[in-house]
Design brief:
2 helices; binds zinc ion; two-stranded antiparallel sheet; alpha+beta; Herpes Virus-1; single chain; two-stranded antiparallel ribbon; globular
Amino acid sequence: MNEGKVYKQREQFCGNCKQIFDRNDLTWINDNYGIPYKKVCESCYEEVHEQIRNNNYGEELSYYEMWGD
Ligand SMILES: [Zn+2]
């Protein structure tokens, strides 16, 4: 999948602040059911974790936001 766009493979949006990071700098957060919910940067991790604990998931991400181009 997406093999034609290798040059972008390492870049990915943080699921929270929408900034672009190297995907190695992003961490998956699981929801209350243990399902991967968002991949976020280090500075957003605590905030998003708190949102999940409070069951405030916010908007759903598109495929593009989750996985990049
Ligand atoms: Zn972030």
